[in-house]
Structures
1.
Amino acid sequence: MELTTPNLKRCVKSENKRWHVVIVGGGFGGLRAAQGLKSAPVDVTLIDRRNYHLFQPLLYQVATGSLSPGEISAPLRQRVQPPEKYPRASG
């Protein structure tokens, strides 16, 4: 399956307004969609009940002690955008 970006030129209402895409789920599909829309002229919000992505095929190796939990999970924020784009807390 190949991720394709729709023709956003004909979808945009005006040059001042941007579309807001909401992706529900931070699994493989949600991450792929968010990464595919990085260069598109849209605002992207990724919603998931957890703040990390877990690579479940290696979960058994954590159970046996071969890997640590940190080796099969990564924060969603880190997977989707580079650290320089994180919002900064003021104060």
2.
Amino acid sequence: MNTHKNNTIILERTGQVLVTKIRYADNYFLRLRGLIGTPPLTKSEGMLISPCKQVHTHFMRYPIDVVFLDKHYTVISKVIAMQPWRVSSYVTNALYALELPANTAAMLEPADKLRFQ
């Protein structure tokens, strides 16, 4: 994880801003809670979970997109509109999971690199 908390995520391939407000879940309790009990993410919000190789949506009330990233913030895999009460696949090479509003990660492709600033 970055030593400082950044607020913006950019898709390097296009320069498109994906997120302007990042929630970080980088300790046990924040990872355990995740987005449970929160309102749906807005179009410009995301949650970065670290470390993370798998996510669940138990107790959530809304679907999310999940993008798994390696240590260089390169897209490994994604789940579009993951419904409540589901468990994602285990992504061995992932270090991060970026949770986004449902149906916003469709343009991301494997090997896309994300930049945090």
